[in-house]
Amino acid sequence: MAMAAAGLGPGEAAAAAHALSLPAEAFGNDPRVELAWAMKAHQHAQVYFNLISSVDPKFLNLTKVDDRIYEEFRKTFRDLKIDVLDPEDLKSEAAKEKWRPFCLGFEGVVEDFNYGTLLRLDCHQGYTEENTIFATRIQFFAIEIARNREGWNSFVYSSARELGAEEPVSG
User: Fold this and answer.
1) Cα(70)–Cα(144) distance, integer angstroms
2) Global pTM?
């Protein structure tokens, strides 16, 4: 998704930022707001992927309450396979019934816990249309914190380091 294609100037970007602070009910299905949300989610995804590509993920803290998120996540979703997510584990009616109380448990604890964000399905790959699902921010944090702590995101970091080592040093 190309951000330049959005064609937002400084004034429009400021208006979009203001619009994002208003409650969703104020908009209905306004395509400009949807585009602004898509841009924000895409930017967040790029920043996160660059982060796990340049810093060993096992040392990352994504929030001030990573320990609590991880503990609650693994208590609630003990057997959830997180290396390659099945979209049904996030989106089916049964999954939503299990995720809802987990997510609501972080209301007032994690800022913007229920905002939409992009989540990679296969942690060994980057953000592509085929490898991305829309999730809440707390779902993103729970799964990515677990991937970091359990070593699943180390592949991205190791691959980026290997690519960097292959590039010639210019002098």
Assistant:
1) 9
2) 0.77
